[in-house]
Amino acid sequence: MSYDLDQFIAECRATLQKDPGPAGREAIRLRLESLLQNKDFLQQHCSDETPAGLHVLHDDPELGFQVLAHINEKARISPPHDHGHSWAIYGQATSHTDMTEYERVDDGSNPDTAELKVIKQYRLMPGQAGIYQDGAIHSIDYPDKSRFVRVTGTNLDNITRSRFDPKTGRIAQMTPQRAT
Ligand SMILES: [Fe+2]
Q1: Half-sphere exposure (CA, 13 Å, Cβ side) for 145?
Q2: How far is the CA of 87 from the centre of ligand 1 (A)?
Q3: What 3-state class would DSSP assign to 72?
Q4: Residue 73 CA to chain centroid, in angstroms?
């Protein structure tokens, strides 16, 4: 039998209760890749029949993590951004997402600007999941009909996050999220 959403949520809960740190999240990333092999799950939550938009598949009342399906119709390039004190795992369901990871090379003393250096670039293909630990900065670039499932440590709409102008390094606070 295929690994399904209920099993995935139960495993997220058990894992985060035991180890909420980077190793626990890495275990969740691997299980998300298993969930993305489930054709019934993909058909129900990430197919041409799924209405476009952001769907909350799970909002954990106790631990606060969320499982979200991002059903994107139109291509989008995000600016570099963080996920505040949270973390995020992106699991590709259809098409692809180009990921760029950055590190700050300034000393962090200026609250208004940052200097970013690209440290990693890769393409997430269907069935692959990428992890962005707390404080990590990344940007995403996807074509029309790219769909992905995201797991976040908390509801990102409720926390302070930063985005960075790629040209000037200027830091701005993010407003409630889109698919970033
Ligand atoms: Fe992001």
Answers
A1: 6
A2: 9
A3: coil
A4: 17
